[in-house]
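Hi R.,

Here's the input for the magnesium ion complex you asked about:
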Amino acid sequence: MSENDRVQKAMQHFGRLVSEQMERVERMKKDDSWTEYSSLRPVRIGVCWGDGIGKMISVHAERVLRHMLKDEVENGKVEFRTIQGLTIENRAAQKKAIPDDVLEEIKACHVILKGPTTTPQAGDEWPNIESANVAMRRELDLFANVRPVKVPSEGIDWCFFRENTEGAYVLGSRGLDVDDDISIDFKVITEQGAERIIRMAFEYARANGIKRVTAVTKANVVKSTDGRFSRAAARIAREYEKYGIEQDEWYIDIMTAKLLDPARRKDFRVMVLPNLYGDILTDEAAQIQGGVGTAGSANIGRRWAMFEAIHGSAPRMVKEGRDIYADPSSMIRASAMLLRHIGFPERADKLEMALEVCGQFERKLKITGRDTGATGEEFTTYLLDEINSGSLSSKWNEFTQK
Ligand code: IPM
Ligand code: MG
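And here is the predicted structure with magnesium ion in place:
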């Protein structure tokens, strides 16, 4: 291909991406309503197992969730559905990030509890299809990836609001190999996309009496996209001054350092950030809480919401026969977020309390990811016993006053 042809091809490709984003912006401008869960009967919870350790930890999380919603399941207010087919084998066979029939089943539910799914990369054993996570977030427009991390004994109480439908991700499978020498990826941030996630972060701060929201960017270098995100944060912040909420901005590099600084880190409370930075920073944060196996995440959109672990499918654990030792806490934490989202905040609090007592404080059983520790099933039984015991809140008080 001549140089001119290659340039033309690249321009056409870029032109298509720009048109698609323009259409997306128009759709976002029209968005107005949110699902009202209290008016749904039944609220349908779809459970997707995923790959690797996914099935194992999903089953444990579903057991906990069913326990917390026992009455509602019995009286028909809540219904569970198992959604098969989001496996890497099926996705690879159909060469689709989410096969059509699976997507249909997902959309027929109101909320989804999803186990981790394997994301192929060029050169591995699978066709290089798009990540099921990224596809689901885009298809259901789950724009807010909310990831709380708490270490009560150290005063850490963070909530990350990661933008979930833009940034480097949404066009991550739409990059361009211009020729044998040049590859270009695209990153997009729109005014509407930035605004909706930033607003959610500020609303969370306001609702919880938090006085600071931190935007995390690299706007000094990535000037257009991060620059837009940064300006949107500053603009929206002005609306929240009257609630005494201040806004500041940190660059992603120094932010990753500050999360490790015991003297400063507990001062951060709410962080709002573009997609890729959010991906990276929340793994670091989760590690501080006890490992990625302890962290859950909510993917919230106006119509649907999906709840998942923040980590991947850990195929190595399965290969080594260690999947029964995988920590289900991440998915159980996601289940607590699901409970809160569909209108059961007290039960969500109780479940989170139990996770902290069992996972951080009492630790009668420890999960180590191998046979030196408890299995996921044993841990789940321990957790349910604590929930039923009646001494949960006194233990938690003891813990947090240490
Ligand atoms: C996450 C995961 C995903 C992501 C992968 C599986 C695509 O790391 O939820 O953080 O990068 O978003
Ligand atoms: Mg990640």
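One thing worth noting: The pocket of magnesium ion (ligand 2) is lined by residues 279, 283, 310 (CB under 6 Å).

Cheers,
M.
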